[in-house]
Amino acid sequence: MKEKILVVEDDIEIAFAIKEFLAKKRYAITWTSTGKEGLEEFQKNKYDLVIVDIMMPEMDGFTLCKNIRMKSDIPILIMSAKSQEKDKVKGLNIGADDYITKPFSLVELEARIDSHIRRYKRYLGENKEEKIIQYKDGLKLYKDLEEIELNDKKLHFTIKEYSLLALLIKTRIGYFPKRNCMKTYRGK
User: Fold this and answer.
1) Which UniProt keywords apply (predicted)?
2) In the prediction, which pLDDT does 128 show?
């Protein structure tokens, strides 16, 4: 399965170079050009890592990073032309996991991405044995694919529906408070 990366970068040439390079390597890349679009995209879909530029229209990268960090522990890599120590420290202090300055090597960027995703998956406790949860009644939950099968037939769900159903399946209790279900459905 390809890891999904959200790239939030207003410079189309840089974004295109990153997208082309990483897509060849095994990543599924989504690109947005403003901080506001990046936040909207992040809230709609599930990603394994986010790459954020600092100087962007509508919402700067620092603000975007803060907003993402309030909702998720996903790895965030800031990529910026701002190379002063104060900018790097600010980025790391508001929640970024890494900071790379422009110009940068795409090979180095890939190595940093690999490292962060590897650690993030370890943090989440993902290993091969835990990727499929199988139940006696023919129900299978594929965590890495975010798919559910019933009697070997694939069931189709939106990301939010999958998250809610997976929560209910994994909880294994007869009662689950409505507000908790709604929080999961809304992504909170």
Assistant:
1) DNA-binding, Phosphoprotein, Transcription, Transcription regulation, Two-component regulatory system
2) 46
